[in-house]
Design goal:
single chain, 345 residues, alpha+beta, L-amino peptidase D-ALA esterase/amidase, 4-stranded mixed β-sheet
Length: 345
């Protein structure tokens, strides 16, 4: 059975996790992976669906915070301008952004005959990290069919973590990185709400990692190097928030990364996208005015703490669940889970 961070007696913060301690604790959210392992190829796509319906017709309020912009993602400019997402989110490697874009366009056109005819075009959101240390990124092995497979695999419930999907070839703090998730549960006006984080962890210098108990694991044979990694955070919540509030929440993902020892180096692409599943935006809304529910700003610290704790834990879950991996040209990354087992949890 795969061990997660809490199985080693380590916790991040003071808030309670959701039942799954995953982004799928947010009702309606689904996650799927497609992993490609073939010789020097260790890569894949990860797909996140905010709801089961047609996202172009029922868009989600959203925001993006670019912590450090050394990245090649697609769709972020319009997301920031309009404060909404209208496709599933795809995560992959840097040179597969165009492939993911094409796959999301293909699906959106198939489901909406009016796109590009009686209405506007569509804004796919694709996010990336560079998996070229462990995988032959120049092979450009990912195809639209691989993206479709990740989209079709999306499901609610427990989430596969570690070296899966987009996380197959990622590295973090000199250890094997990958996909990780965590959530927090809290009450507002006597109703229960959730906030979940999905992290694609591919960042951090060896020796900089700080565990919740203060230990600083150093991978064997670690060598100093410039910070050229990246991290993608996708944040979901069922709390009603408008896009400005969602950006404020997304920005606090950086606090969770800082707790880990990250400093967002010059060559690091660190991006957080946040969305709320409450009150979808109707593409075909006929009214001139629409009602908008939003959290009382004086209560938003609850979400700030939740995103900070869940981000820290999501990254560590990615690293703990990922096995030691040898990839392209014999490049190797040890497992943080193995380090914890060898050093008393």
């Amino acid at each position: 059975m795969t061990q997660r961070l809490r199985d080693f007696g380590l916790t991040c913060g003071i808030m309670q996790p959701g039942p799954l301690n995953a982004i799928t604790d947010v009702p309606g959210v689904k996650l799927g992976h497609h992993t490609l392992r073939d010789g020097d190829i260790l890569t894949g796509f990860t797909a996140l669906l905010p709801h089961d319906g047609n996202l172009f017709r029922q868009k989600m309020r959203a925001a993006v915070d670019v912590i450090n912009g050394f990245g090649k993602s697609a769709g972020l400019m319009q997301l920031a301008e309009l404060g909404q997402i209208e496709t599933p989110l795809l995560l992959g490697n840097t040179l597969a952004v165009g492939t993911g874009f094409d796959a999301l366009v293909t699906r959106a056109l198939a489901a909406n005959a009016d796109i590009g005819r009686r209405t506007g075009t569509v804004n796919p959101v694709v996010l990336e990290c560079n998996d070229g240390y462990l995988s032959d990124i120049r092979a450009r092995a990912l195809t639209e069919e691989h993206a479709f497979a990740a989209l079709d695999a999306a499901a609610s419930g427990p989430v596969a973590e570690g070296a899966v999907g987009a996380g197959a070839g990622m590295t973090a703090f000199g250890f094997k990185g990958g996909i990780g998730t965590a959530s927090r549960r809290f009450d507002l006006d006597d109703n229960g709400y959730s906030l979940g984080v999905l992290a694609l962890a591919n960042f951090g210098n060896a020796g900089d990692l700080v565990l919740p108990d203060g230990r600083r694991p150093v991978p064997p044979r670690a060598r100093p190097q410039a910070e050229r990694g990246s991290v993608i955070l996708v944040i979901a919540t069922d709390v009603p928030l408008e896009s400005r509030q969602l950006q404020r929440v997304a920005r606090r993902g950086g606090a969770g990364l800082a707790r880990l020892g990250a400093f967002w180096g010059n060559g690091s692409g660190d991006i957080a996208v946040a969305f709320s599943t409450a009150d979808p935006i109707e593409h075909d809304q006929p009214a001139d005015f629409v009602a908008l529910r939003a959290l009382n700003e004086n209560r938003i610290d609850t979400l700030f703490r939740a995103i900070t704790e869940a981000t820290q834990e999501a990254v560590l879950n990615a690293m703990v669940t990922a096995p030691a991996t040898t990839g392209r040209d014999g490049h190797h990354r040890p497992s943080l889970g193995d380090w914890l087992r060898e050093n008393g949890g």
